[in-house]
Amino acid sequence: MTLIAIFFPFLSFLLRGRIFTGIICLILQITLIGWIPAAIWAVISLQNARADRRTDRMIRAMKKNNP
């Protein structure tokens, strides 16, 4: 998924269900200069989404173990 975020930043957003963000990223990506910021934005967004899922799993596990 990280390679998709680097080479096709807009597709990374679309695959994660972020349609409006994907369209904005595609507009940015159309310009050659905008490709690098779009790729960085997609990779950072992907990493943040993974961190959020990891945090949610830890919170659920902590709630499950506490009476």
From TrEMBL:
Protein's cellular compartments: Membrane
Chief place where the protein resides: membrane
TM helices/strands, residue ranges: 20-44
GO CC aspect terms: membrane
InterPro entries for the chain: PMP3
Protein name: Proteolipid membrane potential modulator
Family: Belongs to the UPF0057 (PMP3) family.
